[in-house]
Amino acid sequence: MSRADAAGPLRQAQAVVRARTSGPGFYDVTRKVQQHLATMGAGSGVLTLFIRHTSASLVVQENADPTVQADLVDALDGLAPANRRWRHADEGPDDMPAHVKSMLTQTSLAIPVFTGHLQLGTWQAIYVAEHRSAPHEREVALAWIGTIIDNSG
Amino acid sequence: MSRADAAGPLRQAQAVVRARTSGPGFYDVTRKVQQHLATMGAGSGVLTLFIRHTSASLVVQENADPTVQADLVDALDGLAPANRRWRHADEGPDDMPAHVKSMLTQTSLAIPVFTGHLQLGTWQAIYVAEHRSAPHEREVALAWIGTIIDNSG
Amino acid sequence: MSRADAAGPLRQAQAVVRARTSGPGFYDVTRKVQQHLATMGAGSGVLTLFIRHTSASLVVQENADPTVQADLVDALDGLAPANRRWRHADEGPDDMPAHVKSMLTQTSLAIPVFTGHLQLGTWQAIYVAEHRSAPHEREVALAWIGTIIDNSG
């Protein structure tokens, strides 16, 4: 039932993934994350992802049908409508709804990794969910805790 | 204020918890998770839980009164109604609401463990929240990072 | 792109942060969390935060403008109204909405730490979100996995 690999002591490594966004939507960063794991020499352990913003967030969702992401954006719009009277309005009508949408989704994720592979389900991808209208460059801090496969030899 | 045990170097171990579901609701997996910790010989560290699905999710909630879970299911139904016009409808009317409910709850959890014990509060339990109508077998990947108590001696 | 420090093997340490609350709102615990990291001698790794309650939760949000937090409280009230007919009502009209708000926000957070510093974005703070009306003392379990800087020499 349980399994462990024999690749020696645990170590930590960190990196940053950047995503350029152009309006509300879901931006798939799965491949970039996997590339960082490979660069780090990640073996088995846990990858932590943390988005360093409060008007964009992290979501693991289905990657098979792009209409799923369009519906998720609509659902968030319904839960945090732009036309409500918000106290905090001086950064634009899309700012406070973006904070609400960020609060209702994820700031951090922790994903098990086994022998270098993210333990995502078949249809799962990792998305930066952008909630602002203007283009942004978003930063996701990655922190690896696990075994390291030394590729330097 | 802070505390550490002296059980030696950190190690990692992984396992999978499976939950059979029969329609929307909360399925308590706390005991299964604890059994895996015991099997792994978990001492002190952090247990990561990650559900490998996008129409079911993880929730830590009250286990004292089962009407709490029934109310939580109703609340999620209100936030993601099945009778809305969703673009993504070819997997059935309960599919897209299930993705929304999954997005609004948790895909991953990280729970501190001290000397083998999950640091849950008195009334907290770990649930797989099923959002689909048909029966499913759901997989939750567990990843342990912490000290290991060797029971083999 | 990726970085690791050379401070030796990974270790774990745990602590508890307490927050006294006086009604619904966001209570900033960032400084207390940072103090615990310093006391633990935390170098680089991941800090896990886990709130041991089901009617209060964790949120990372903007700390610049306090009206943001007031709007977030209002948004949560709209999503889980106190005047709905809840099955679970014997702990008061604010109890079941508090469980819903807790479910829609976070029970656990994982935050990367590099050379002792939480990798929060410029405007991010860590909040205990209180959802009950009566005053409470809330407990957040902290678990450190990472390098430890020995200050004892």
Describe the structure.
The structure is a homotrimer of 153-residue chains. The first copy, chain A, has 153 residues and is α+β, with helices and mostly antiparallel strands. Chain A has one domain: Jelly Rolls, CATH 2.60.120. Helix content of chain A is 23%, strand content 41%. Chain A has three helices and eight strands. A five-stranded antiparallel β-sheet of chain A has the order 1-8-3-5-6. A three-stranded antiparallel β-sheet of chain A has the order 2-7-4. The longest helix of chain A is centred in the middle third of the chain and has 14 residues. Chain A is elongated. The mean pLDDT of chain A is 94.
Briefly, what CATH class of chain A? Mainly Beta
Q: Detail the poorly predicted runs of chain A.
A: none
The main β sheet of chain A shows up as:
5 strands, antiparallel
Q: Element order, helices and strands of chain A?
A: EEHEEHHEEEE
Count of alpha/pi helices of chain A: 3
Output the strand order for the largest sheet of chain A.
1-8-3-5-6
Structural class of chain A: alpha+beta
Number of domains of chain A: 1
Keywords for this entry:
153 residues; 3-stranded antiparallel β-sheet; Jelly Rolls; 23% helix; 5-stranded antiparallel β-sheet; 8 strands
Please outline what is shown here.
Three copies of one chain form a homotrimer. Chain A is an alpha+beta fold.
